[in-house]
Each structure stands twice: as structure tokens, then as C-alpha cells.
Amino acid sequence: MNIIFLGAPGAGKGTQARKLVADFGLVQLSTGDMLRESQSSNTEIGKKVASIMNPGELVSDDIVISLIKERLSNTHATGFIFDGFPRTIGQAGALDTLLDVHDTSITAVIEMKVDNEALVDRITGRYTCAECGEVYHESSRPLLPTSVCIKCGSVKLKKRIDDNEESLRTRLDEYNNKTAPLIEYYLNKGILYSVDGLEEIEVINSAINKILLK
Ligand code: AP5
Q: Which DSSP state fits 11?
């Protein structure tokens, strides 16, 4: 089973992807996480990636496709969750070709619909565990009262550099101009399913499980 999560920044892709890893034993491939890892290496490529990601623009197709190609070749799994990839029609075509080589294909594309007002709240209120990357939110998923990560026990938290209103505006423009056309691309393939991303996290998880188990 191979799943794509499609949705604007803050729609809840990462939150739901981590749940599916637990529910179905799939491997989550987040190009955002891979690119953040490349930044932490402090290499020239890492610095270049940071200068594109921090203001909220999309990294080039060549870079992200090579990251996904490398992971698909080196990871043994019964299936993958593509979280934040593909983000352009070019990336979608490349993914189809890569999966074909591995004799597999996309089972379902889950589009998460959330309005702009909620996205601003989710992005500006998000923080993550610096050790394991578990995602929290100051009102909808707070760490309090213990301030200890429920997953790994760390007390170190961080906010993403691109989680501010200015970068978010650019990220939304990039989504609307370059990523939203994928909705029609997958609709035409008959594998697009939409869920209401404004529901509670557990309600959305049940809706996704229902789609995947039908
Ligand atoms: P990426 O890391 O993929 O970020 P994004 O798409 O902007 O998505 P987010 O991670 O911000 O949000 P999410 O949908 O995962 O929401 P989450 O579950 O965390 O990409 C970052 C950058 O990398 C891009 O801007 C680009 O520069 C580059 N990049 C990455 N992939 C690329 C590609 N393929 N091509 C080119 N460039 C690429 O939830 C958000 C918050 O809301 C959390 O606090 C969470 O607790 C809360 N929340 C979640 N669900 C709910 C709910 N149902 N109700 C209430 N709160 C909720």
C-alpha cells in the first residue's frame, strides 16, 4: 500500500502520517524532514536548501526527486506514506516512473481540506520535540502539564524557522500555484479521496482508515 498525503502547510499531513505508520506499519517519507536533515549538515547544499525553505519557497524538483529515489532504493517496506511529496506535476510524474521501476504504484491520495484561518493558527502554534520530532500545538495538542514529550520523554522543544506568518503566505502561494493542480491529476487517475481536515485528529484518522480499508 502506497499513500500520498496532499494538503496545504499545516493541514495535518505529518500528524496523520505518523498515525498510519502505527496503524499499518508503513514507512513515512517526508521530503520536508529530509530537507531539514540536509540543512543540519551545514554543507553548501544544506545552506542552499535553507535559503529556499526558510522564506517558504519550494526546493527544485531535481533535489527532492533524488532524495526520494535514494530512499526508495534503500528502504525495504511493505508500503510508503509520501508526506509532502509530490508537490508539482513534474514530481508526480517522476514518482509514477520510480514506483513503476519498483513494480508498484500509488494506492490512494488523501487530500486534507483545511481553511486558511485554521492553517495560520496551526502553523503559528506548532512546536516539535527536538529529539524525536513529535508534533504538538499550543492549544490543540499541548504538552502541559508535564512538559515532557509523550513519545521520547525529552523536555527539549523547538519551533520551525519557516513557521511564521510571512513564510506561511509564501508557502500557501506555492501550494495554490504549484501543488493544488495535483488534485486534478490524481482525480483523473481515480485515486483521489478528500477528508475534512478541520475535524479532530482521531476523527480524521478514522476517516482515512475507512478509505484505506474499503
Ligand atoms: P514540509 O515540512 O512538508 O511542510 P508543509 O507542507 O508546509 O507542511 P507542515 O509540515 O507545515 O504541515 P503538516 O500538514 O504536516 O501539519 P502537521 O501535522 O505538522 O515542507 C517544508 C518546506 O520544505 C517547504 O515549504 C519547501 O520549502 C520544502 N519542501 C518539502 N517538500 C518539498 C517538495 N516535495 N518539493 C519542494 N520543496 C519541498 O500539523 C500542523 C499543526 O496542527 C501541529 O501543531 C498539529 O499538532 C496541529 N494539528 C494537526 N491536525 C490537527 C487537527 N485535526 N486539529 C487541530 N490541530 C491539528
A: S
Pocket perturbation via mutation, ligand 1, pick of 58, 65, 66, 169 by most ligand atoms within 8 A of CB: 58
What pTM was computed for the model? 0.94
Q: What is the position in ligand 1's atom list of the atom closest to the CA of 53?
A: 27
Pocket test for ligand 1, best of 13, 91, 166, 196 (most atoms within 8 A of CB): 13
Position 23 scores a pLDDT of 87
CB distance 135 to ligand 1 below 6 Å: yes
Gap from CA of 14 to ligand 1 centroid (Å): 6
The residue that leads in pLDDT, 212 or 146, is 212
- Interatomic CA distance for residues 56 and 54, integer angstroms: 5
Q: Find out whether 113 and 194 touch, Cβ atoms under 8 Å.
A: yes
* C-alpha distances in Å from residue 6, one per residue of 42, 139, 149, 190, 201: 30, 24, 27, 15, 16
Q: What is the pLDDT of residue 133?
A: 86
